[in-house]
DNA sequence: TATCAATATTGATGATCGTCGATAAACTCA
DNA sequence: TGAGTTTATCGACGATCATCAATATTGATA
């Protein structure tokens, strides 16, 4: 389950001037990365052997309230950085590598 | 003239769990990228033949007030994304490619 | 020194953000 | 169906942010 289309649409930042529309499409994704708790969530997922994590595990390991974690997960999902899948009671989140690669491309 | 040491210090996001200190060091740099006007400034600099731009040129081309542009430039300078140099009356800003490369590395 | 041009800072504003408690919703299983 | 578990949403709060007008600062030049 994914949400936003990848930012792959956009030229690299350094290859010609961005239009207003382009900058408005890319900026929110970087802004989502601009929060320590969210970076920790991403790295926590990457550190899992299965490359995925249940939301409730993050609540324990981040030391944040459950609604706060849910809020961060929602933002990253909407930014196309995370995919989610329901299995039983739990919801598993995993990284969307394509979106991370797209961001690398924008920076290069 | 540069300010912040590169975020090159940090392991890639996907190579093991970030410490709180690491995430708090990296996040502000991404947050600075999370604003359309600032992305436009970066791309505007990259689009210049000389790879640099005078602050006053940006005021004209961005359609923002001069204090606003100065504010954005300051944030990017402090984030290590821009370097500046005074020549005569004007101050020229250019990209710090090392910092952009460091961010790519964090994402990969 | 005085004036001018370019940039930075200050102070104020409305808007957005991160956080949490309380509550709702979704799903499983007995 | 009903109880239990997991996740999402709501409402409110303090804090931070982007923006601008006004003003200060810096450096060049007459």
Please outline the major beta sheet of chain A. 3 strands, antiparallel
CATH C-level name of chain A: Mainly Alpha
CATH architecture of chain A: Orthogonal Bundle
Number of strands of chain A: 3
Low-confidence stretches of chain A: none
Hey, which two chains have the biggest interface?
Answer: A-B, 36 and 36 residues
- Gross morphology of chain A: elongated
Q: Give me the Rg of chain A, rounded.
A: 15 Å
Strand order of the largest sheet of chain A: 1-3-2
Class from secondary-structure proportions of chain A: alpha+beta
CATH topology of chain A: Arc Repressor Mutant, subunit A
Number of structurally distinct domains of chain A: 1
Strand content of chain A: 5-15%
Overall pLDDT of chain A, averaged? 92
What is the topology?
The structure is a homodimer of 108-residue chains.
Chain A: H1 20-33, H2 36-47, E1 52-54, H3 55-62, H4 66-78, E2 82-87, E3 90-95, H5 97-107
Antiparallel strand pairs in A: 1-3, 2-3
Helix pairs in contact in A: 3-4
The structure holds a DNA duplex (30 and 30 nucleotides).
């Amino acid at each position: 389950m994914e949400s936003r289309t990848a930012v792959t649409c956009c030229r690299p930042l350094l290859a010609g001037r961005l239009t207003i529309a382009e900058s408005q499409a890319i900026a929110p994704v970087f802004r989502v990365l601009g929060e320590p708790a969210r970076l920790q969530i991403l790295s926590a997922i990457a550190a899992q052997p299965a490359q995925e994590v249940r939301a409730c595990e993050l609540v324990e390991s981040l030391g944040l309230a459950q609604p706060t974690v849910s809020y961060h997960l929602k933002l990253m999902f909407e930014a196309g950085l995370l995919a989610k899948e329901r299995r039983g009671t739990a919801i598993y989140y995993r990284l969307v590598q394509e979106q991370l690669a797209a961001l690398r491309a924008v920076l290069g």
